[in-house]
Specification:
Number of strands: 28
Strand content: 15-25%
Distance between the termini: 59 Å
Number of helices: 19
Oligomer: single chain
CATH architecture of one domain: Alpha-Beta Complex
Radius of gyration: 28 Å
Largest sheet: 7 strands, mixed
CATH superfamily of one domain: Aldehyde oxidase/xanthine dehydrogenase, a/b hammerhead
Length: 762
Amino acid sequence: MTALPLTPEISRVFDEPEYRIEGPLKVSGRARYAADVTAPGALWAKFLSSPRPHARIVSIDTTAAKAVPGVHAVLTGDDIGRKRFGRMLFDWPVLAFDRVIFAGQRVAAVAAETKDAADEAVKLIEIEYEDLPVIVDPEDALKEGAPLLHPDSASYTYLGGERTVPHPNLQGYELFQKGDPDIEHAFAQADRVFEDVYETPRQHQGYIEPHACMVWIRDDGSVYVRSTNKGPFGLRRQLSIVTGVPQEMIDVDSRFIGGDFGGKGNSIDEWATYFLATATGRPVKAVMSYAEELAGVNPRHMARIYTRTGVMNDGRIVAFESRAYYNGGACAGAKPQAGLVVGTGFGTMQVYNVPNTRMEVFVSYTNTVPCGNMRAPGVPVAALAGEEQIDHIARELGIDPIEIRLKNALREGDHGPKGEELRNPQAVAVLEALKREVRWGERPLPPNHGRGIALRHREGGEGKTEIVLRLMPDGQIDALYGTPDQGSGSATLVRRIAAAILTVDPNRIAVRYGTTGEAKPDPGAGASRVTHVMGRATINGSLRMKDKLEELAAEVMGWPAGEVHLQDDHFIVGDGSAESASFEQVADRIARGGPIEIVGQYDSSVEHTTEDTSFYAYMIEVEVDPETGHVRPIEAVMTVDVGPIINPVAHQGQLDGSFVYGLGNTMMEELEIDDEGKVSTLSLGEYKMPTQMDTIPLRTVLIPTEIGPGPFGAKAVGETVNAGVHPAIANAVRDAIGVRIKTFPITSERVYRAIQEKKSGA
């Protein structure tokens, strides 16, 4: 099914100012997040985490902890059994047994009347460890003789079918080749070959709300879970697998989520909290501290990528090879991807027409915090490697950085590095627009100033969902759906689309998030899928509801069948010159026997068979102090191809937010890991994120198209533009002072060292 076209009548609704449905609750403080929830008799959960990155558990003594007044339960891995959880591969122990495999791993759980009592009990748990060899680097994990972190992985539950990896310390591996099967033969045709190595660090997603949950075991044995997890139906399934409770007896509620950026698809403490609730017969609540978040929850993967590109003297790419190593940490449980591979590792040259490629992606187990998804998972290192290497090639060959990109950019009918053919690629359009907007090459820059270019694209997510629309006797149309709103405005999206299709007043649409016990199954927020998937389901349901209401209106009003139209919040007959009635008048008569219900459905695997992406390009100007290495971004211009915009304020907010997000990732953010695998940045004072004072002027230029996967041809925007900031700033630094930074973030120290190395000729 192709996307419904954007008509003037529909566009008129989207041109109206948007109002966030949940906005009044949030700005007034009445929105109740998971950490706000309480219940009569609720206990507090606290956890003892391992200080060792890899060690055998010799003994655990909980005697003193159990004696603390107010303590109701102290559990260890021996108490609950050898339970593991995960999203795709269940390899993450609920509580450690036999060994700990990363610093920050949960070893014991306490439930007590107060937080203070739980904290005191945790401190009194005595554990004896015997240290084991530690692996920190993803390449070291694959060397001969490296200790195996999951020797019994063949017995783990895996939801992705058959799992095979070429090395037992690999979470996932994939090789892709295109063109000449002998890549060396392809490289032999090139005039020049360029090789580089790039590295990006672990980073925290930066959500305001820490992970939190509360678990009730009801009298009938059913389980109610209030969670910060943005994929409640996935969590329900995972809880069922771990606990043995049937899915239909688990109700997960994720109604308010205080930020996500990829980090809230995984749950850490719901599992142990369930076992505490079972042991005590009381509701149990767990709220993480930021130190726990930074030390033990799923950050972005540290990644290293080796690239080799063969080009002709005119800048045309003829061959490309890459090896991308992702540090997956001690467990793969936070990954939702089948194959457990960060597929964007293949995206280094994603925007270019490369005839011959050989690309490998390795995701290794190490004794570090398990890694998961973060806004545009895996993309920053691929973007950095691809766009810095293109810039490197351009400078060596004396070709303008924009011109070399135009020479190789994907055009209609071209195939990307994996052989993919994109529908309506806009690479040339965004580059040409950028060239015009910044008046490229028309003015000289001051000393130590530089301009950097980056060209990228980002695909939207896929999925299957349903939404329930009900006409009520008072004329209200309820819209019940199961996608949590993690801040992106999905409820407002649903209301605006439903109102536009039904041609009714938007205030008539009452959108309601439903728990897994109320709503239809949904894949959750994330992967830039919500506008595409929930938007298309809303269109489907609204079209069917409109047809049904027009049919019933004719029946109850005695009007000619087939001649009744719902338009501008009225039912009219024919052209409206003869008879019409307000929506309320007709709705009252239609729904007297009870609500009229329609289920809207959408499955992208059936209805979306093309590959659609949003292309974008950056120019970022920086000033570099050659004496200190300090880099000061000055101005940024972004050109991005977009489809029809449903929520204009939210759309621009996502673009602006993505840019600032990328700025922080590029300039300051790093979860530092010491030589023993421990996170050493354990506060937000040490892990620095950008504030308003760090932002710079950003000019956005939209390149409109009407060809996209979402409603009316809309395209994803949530994760689209953040990764391009990395290479644009790196290329600007090279343009300013002649040094190239290949390891991120771009701190003053790294730039200063590069300047000194250049001076010494190293």
